[in-house]
Write a structure and sequence with these properties.
Blueprint lengths: L29 H57 L10 H8 L13 E3 L16 E6 L5 E2 L5 E2 L5 E6 L8 E6 L2 E6 L6
Parallel strand pairs: 1-2
Antiparallel strand pairs: 2-5, 3-4, 5-6, 6-7
């Protein structure tokens, strides 16, 4: 019975639910591809506007946080300087706009649109008041002055030193102005975004 040859076991192809007897399995049908593209389109139509809104909200929050941080630093600087003068020490309050910007930019914070978070500004509606394109906070130092009489005889009133800070009309934020003095902060709403 055994002639020395080994018999090979028969191998049967196993059939599963997804396999077929033929080898022409070509991939997805056109209908399946169209459904996938439609689903991607619907998800994109919903997700992209939500993502943009999220980014805009985050950037407006960053501008507001930079503005509020500048107010806190200015209040702390005025308070520290007042205390130093009370005990007979020299002033340490920055005395120029650039010195204030250096103090505020110590940590290297950037504006949402790029560039420094704090820039020199003025009270000019077109050229000052921060940067509405980048979201940079406007900074302007105004020195104190004594009461004086002008050449025409009118009295020029005394003014205490102050730091003007502007939160620009960035995206849908309203412009705000903070006048920081030794006495405190005067926060004013300025122009609306659509003005």
């Amino acid at each position: 019975m055994n002639s020395g040859k080994r018999s090979k076991p028969m191998r049967f192809r196993q059939l599963t639910a997804n396999s077929s007897m033929t080898s022409d399995n070509r991939g997805y049908s056109l209908f399946e591809l169209l459904i996938a593209i439609a689903v991607i389109g619907i998800v994109s139509a919903l997700a992209i506007p939500a993502y943009r809104t999220y980014i805009e909200t985050a950037n407006m929050t960053k501008v507001t946080a930079n503005f509020e941080q500048a107010i806190r630093v200015a209040q702390l600087s005025f308070s520290k300087d007042k205390t130093r003068r009370a005990i007979g020490l020299f002033d340490t309050l920055p005395s120029t706009t650039e010195a204030w910007i250096t103090l505020l930019n110590k940590s290297g914070v950037q504006a949402p649109g790029g560039g420094p978070a704090y820039i020199a500004s003025s009270n000019n509606q077109t050229t000052g008041r921060g940067n509405a394109e980048t979201g940079a906070i406007g900074v302007n130092w105004i020195d104190s002055r004594s009461e004086s009489v002008r050449a025409n005889g009118t009295v020029r009133p005394a003014r205490e030193a102050r730091l003007d800070l502007w939160r620009p009309r960035y995206l849908s934020l309203r412009e705000q102005r903070a006048l920081v003095t030794e006495a405190g902060v005067d926060l004013r709403n300025q122009r609306l975004p659509e003005d």
